[in-house]
UniProtKB/TrEMBL annotation:
This is DSBA-like thioredoxin domain-containing protein. InterPro entries: DSBA-like_thioredoxin_dom, Thioredoxin-like_sf. Residues 96-176 form the DSBA-like thioredoxin domain. Pfam families: DSBA.
Amino acid sequence: MTILHYIHDPLCGWCYAATALLEAARARPEIRLRMHGGGLWHPAARLREGQRQHILEADARIGALTGQVFGPGYRALLADPETVFHSRPTIAALLAVPEPLAPAMLRAIQRAHYVEGLRVVEDGVLAALAMELGLDEAEFRASLAAAPVEAHINTTRRLMQRVGATSFPTFLAERDGNIEIVPHMDCYEDPAAFVARL
């Protein structure tokens, strides 16, 4: 059994790029996934002009490499100076759903953000996504409010420091108590090669 530790952020474009890698790994029964949200946008922030351009350039590379879609709603979100980027609510949403549903919730958040341009930092948007997954709205909102998100982010950052991880996403393979970073940057176009490394 290999435990795949996925250090990510729902609002990280390169984590969106890694969707196919994650799905290929999850399809293997001998691989167990553990997700660790790291808080790329923490505390909340609005984009500066230089940041906006950097993100657009990265998005173009991601689209060319992986075919991932960046919709007009998302581009409008980037262009709006009032748009707030904040990882905390999205990571809390992943903690608020039953663990087996966390990957599906991550995909839903990414689709809502990158394709539809919805403001996924808002509780109402996150609750609507949870309901699409079949969850009860009131129960999800209660779990969202109670999610231990600060402790989770802090634990993830300590893990990153311990293994020398400096970016999102980072994949770690754990076997027999030993953890090592799994290189993935050359696998965006070849998920099977990534799985073979695991």
